[in-house]
Amino acid sequence: MNSRQRRGVILLLLSVLCALGAFAGVLSVVQNVKSQVGPKVTAYEVKSNVPPYTSLTPDRFRKVTMPKRWLPDTAVTDLAELRGKIAVTTLRKGSLLQSDMIVDRPALKPGQQEVAILIDAATGVAGKIRPGATVNVYATFEGDRNGRPDQSRVIVTDAEVIDVGRLTSLEPDADHRTQQPTDAVPITFALSAIDAQRLTYAESFAKRVRLALVAPGSDSTVPDRDRTYELAKDK
After folding, report:
1. Which partner from 25, 81, 164, 204 sits 20 to 30 angstroms from 185, CA to CA?
2. C-alpha R_g of the chain
């Protein structure tokens, strides 16, 4: 084989190698595109910011579809998983909903029942109340014409909060106990039967109901002599 023939063979081999390289590149691109436009699955993203410890409902999320290969293993693909769940941290708008963002809502203990009342946003510890918190409930009652003075009373101690709802705007009551529109928050407690009665009584008849947040691990016991306060008796 002369030198011209050898050069021809070399060029031919180079051409074959280049063709094989180009084919492999095209095949890789095709496989990558196929994987991206291949099977898609349903997921959910957050419509707007959701505060931590908020109960989760389907209307807070929108359905999205995406390639299965890009979906995290922790992604929520069925909104039924939200039943009885709360946000463990702030859920940001546009975030993909994932199972590590949510936890079970605190459960009732034997002998307890759920009781929900509306608490004025300004008197509910200014948004610091969260599920799992412990509070004391205070109520103020107006005096009457028979000489009964205005009083502040400790209605319930160590009330466990299990849910905090959305801020709601209230209009004045028919009996004008509420003098102007007020922002209120529905708060659900886990209480014994007698404490549930005390709380609902206060909501119905007290001029104002306030929550006092109890520090974790502290003794929130209120002696009987201190459960009722009257200004005239304060020394």
Report:
1. 81
2. 32
